[in-house]
Write a structure and sequence with these properties.
With 371 residues, the protein is of the alpha/beta class. The chain has helices at 8-15, 41-58, 76-91, 111-125, 134-138, 142-149, 154-173, 184-197, 200-205, 228-237, 244-247, 261-276, 280-290, 318-327; strands spanning 30-31, 38-39, 67-71, 97-104, 129-133, 177-179, 210-211, 219-220, 303-304, 311-312. Helix 3 (76-91) runs parallel beside helix 4, helix 8 crosses helix 12 (261-276) and helix 8 crosses helix 13. It is built from 14 helices and ten strands. Bound molecules: adenosine-5'-triphosphate.
Length: 371
């Protein structure tokens, strides 16, 4: 019997007449992707949420009264996160003030579509929604940026700008924490990528469940140990709940500008390992957690950007360097391998100068640049 990855219907059929290993009473409906246990619908629903609750409690992710922004992209992970967190908040009495925070990168045909999901979630879960856009923050949409730089390095802009945009949105909402839908697969993939790139600074912190505690707004990942496959099937097994159908309506459109082939290989490699041994994902995370950085390795020193005040290990933060390049008609400035963690780069080709765009509001203090 395979795990539930082919879809709930097939796996239910295969689960056949065995009893649930959890309750021992009901018929097993699926094989849990994470543990390969045969389990019934009801128990899957319960263990899925219980494990997330345990992760939250054991890692002291929140305290009563915290204002928490859920980074809501409209994709599967953050849509399920918004639902589960609002349910746990209600049932387990976390006493949190929850908000949805979305960044509109300005990608026509992608983000505009997924933001519709977030707007539905705002109504369904009764959570206030704040949308913050690259256009307003930086004067550029990702559509504009791709026109300027092409499809090769656009993900660098998007990643750097999004980290900062989330911090700025969170500051506007005056929240104490941001939570994101990064799941166990994402984290294992990032461990592997940081090893492959020899990025020791990121390797040392990419498995932290909470990051940015030295900055103004910490971020945490309640799905750190949650498998992507279980997030995908959870809405199908979320029994007798009025939102379960809506939960399946998350946007599954893939970003039109993200070929990101290297990450794609790492992802495929992890999926292959998982097929052979589901624990592989948890073991990669565990290995990442146990890496110890040699005391002789030079680590970047955290400071703040001279221009905008955002946390940075260089004089200017990466977002300011990238924005400078865009505004000066040199979009490749600051893209690529940098000394330390963020900084200058030499591979920019000389391009025709463009008139400087209005230097958008990169002022004020913002949070961490770590994700
Ligand atoms: N545009 C955005 N606005 C707000 N939060 C975002 C946005 N993009 C990503 N995030 C946050 O970062 C997490 C990881 O994003 P990533 O782009 O890796 O997508 P993903 O793994 O497909 O997640 P999802 O299924 O939620 O889109 C998301 O779950 C979400 O919490």
């Amino acid at each position: 019997m395979d795990s539930a990855v082919d879809g709930p219907r097939q796996s239910s059929a295969r689960a056949g007449s065995r009893l649930c290993t959890c309750c021992g009473e009901r018929k097993a409906a699926l094989k849990r992707p994470k543990t390969l246990e045969q389990i019934c619908r009801e128990c899957f629903y319960i263990v899925f949420e219980d494990e997330i609750h345990q992760t939250i409690v054991e890692n002291n992710l929140f305290k009563p009264g915290d204002r928490v922004a859920i980074g809501a992209s409209g994709g599967k992970d953050s849509t399920v996160l918004a639902y589960v967190l609002s349910e746990l908040n209600r049932r387990r009495k976390y006493c949190l003030d929850l908000f949805l925070l979305s960044v509109d990168e300005g990608i026509t045909g992608y983000r505009d579509d997924s933001l519709e999901t977030v707007k539905r979630n705002e109504i369904q879960y009764g959570l206030p929604l704040k949308i913050i856009s690259y256009k307003d923050l930086y004067g550029w949409t990702m559509d504009d940026i791709v026109k300027a730089i092409g499809l090769k390095n656009n993900c660098t802009f998007c990643g750097v700008f999004r980290r900062q945009a989330l911090d700025r949105g969170a500051a506007l909402l005056k929240v104490d924490k941001i939570v994101t839908g990064h799941n166990a697969d994402d984290i294992a993939e990032t461990v592997l990528l940081n090893i492959l790139r020899g990025d020791i600074a990121r390797l040392s912190r990419c498995t932290f469940i909470t990051t940015g505690e030295d900055g103004p707004i910490p971020r945490c990942k309640p799905f750190k140990y949650t498998y992507e496959k279980e997030i995908v099937i959870y809405p199908y097994y979320a029994i007798s709940h009025i939102f379960s159908c809506d939960l399946m309506l998350y946007s599954s459109i893939v970003c039109i500008y993200s070929p990101n082939a290297y990450r794609g290989f790492a992802r495929e490699f992890i999926k292959d390992l998982e097929r052979m041994r589901p624990r592989a994902i948890l073991d990669i995370i565990k290995s990442g957690e146990n890496f110890r950085i040699s005391t002789t390795t030079r680590m970047p020193e955290q400071g703040t950007c001279e221009r905008c005040g955002y946390i940075s290990s260089q004089k200017l933060c990466k977002a300011c360097v990238l924005l400078d390049g865009l505004n000066r008609g040199l979009p490749k400035l600051g893209v690529g391998r940098t000394k330390g963690v963020a900084g200058g780069d030499s591979d920019c080709e000389q391009q025709a100068k463009r008139p400087e765009r209005s230097r958008s509001s990169l002022q004020g203090k913002h949070g961490n640049i770590d994700f």
